[in-house]
Write a structure and sequence with these properties.
8 helices; FAD/NAD(P)-binding domain; alpha/beta
């Protein structure tokens, strides 16, 4: 079978780090991504800060420097990823969406759609570094598809002096609520739990939102769920309470698209639909098909447990497996998340 030794699907941080490693090991590879490099990170709101310290999300031995020596912002990290790709002259084909993966006798046939239409590629091995956030978790309530409703938080300026309902109680929802208050939006935060959980909120955000709630700068409605969205208001349970809303932000998490694992025949396990793989090599139960990065966690339904910083070892494991070497022993403290 013609084609490279490895096809990397995905060009997020771990996919890029793997590409650098394969290049250093002189293992032939190609790399494709349905979007741009770091595309999921580009969804973050402007100036969003990472949980992790810069040294823990740096890749390929390239230091990550930030303007003020604090945690990297979305913009700083995307700039950093571009610089790594340029430094190592990595060839990433962006805008190429892989639709199916089929295992053959001596490798894989990969069906992908790009600028030249649909074509089939071949590779001896495939690594899925596709992440775990492909689509929003839909609530299934009437009005969820209205134009003033979004599952993504963009530029806070858009919410200036608007009545905004934010649904959710973890990082994305809390940060959106805080930033909307700061641009003079009238904010209501609805959360199904009785209180905000410190385990699921960045430690520098929790005191800020608690102070805003205490000082009545936003309205917090714990123990509430969304029943319906209309063009002018929402209805919350219990009690059918009506809240006026010009904009509705449903920041209730995201799901992995597991269709590529399914098409290749990988076994998916549990409610997370986590791909079955060998922890020592990252090889799935389809020989020659590997998983890297947060893609290995499936949909992280009960709180994030896989991060960039805990996935660096995946690169070492895959490189060792491709070379037929013993599995590496992780010595870095990054095996445990910083937060």
């Amino acid at each position: 079978m013609n084609g490279p030794e490895v096809l990397i699907v995905g060009a997020g941080p771990i996919g890029i780090e793997l590409a650098v490693r394969l290049r250093r090991e002189r293992i032939s590879y190609e790399q494709v991504d349905a979007g741009q490099i770091g595309s999921t990170i580009s969804w973050y709101a402007p100036q969003t800060q990472f949980f992790s310290s810069p040294e823990r999300i740096a890749i390929a031995g390239v230091p990550l420097q930030t303007l003020d020596q604090s945690k990297a912002t979305r913009e700083e990290y995307l700039t950093y990823l571009r610089s790594v790709v340029l430094q190592f002259d990595l060839k990433v084909e962006t805008g190429v969406r892989v639709n199916a993966i089929t295992r053959g006798d001596d490798g894989f046939v990969v069906t992908a759609f790009g600028r030249d239409g649909e074509r089939k590629r071949t590779a001896q091995n495939v690594v899925l570094a596709i992440g775990d956030m492909h689509r929003p978790h839909l609530l299934g309530v009437p009005g969820e598809d209205l134009p003033h409703v979004s599952h993504f938080f963009g530029d806070p300026h858009a919410y200036f002096r608007r009545q905004v309902l934010v649904v959710g109680g973890r990082n994305s929802a809390v940060e959106a609520a805080i930033r909307c208050v700061r641009v003079a939006a009238i904010v209501t935060l609805s959360y199904r739990a009785a209180e905000l959980d410190p385990k699921h909120v960045k430690p520098w955000l929790l005191p800020e939102i608690n102070a805003m709630i205490r000082d009545s700068r936003m309205t917090f409605l714990p123990g509430t769920t969304l029943r319906e969205i209309t063009p002018a208001h929402v209805v919350l349970d219990p009690g059918g309470r009506r809240i006026d809303a010009d904009s509705v932000l449903l920041l209730t998490g995201y799901e992995q698209d597991s269709s590529l694992f399914e098409s290749a025949g990988v076994t998916l396990v549990g409610p997370q639909r986590r791909p079955r793989f060998n922890e020592a090599t990252m090889e799935t139960d389809v020989p020659g098909l590997y998983v890297a990065g947060t893609a290995a966690a499936g949909t992280q339904v009960s709180g994030t447990t896989a991060f960039i910083e805990t996935s660096h070892i995946h690169v070492d494991r895959i490189a060792a497996a491709l070379k037929g070497e013993p599995a590496p022993v992780e010595t870095q403290a990054y095996a445990v998340p910083e937060q």
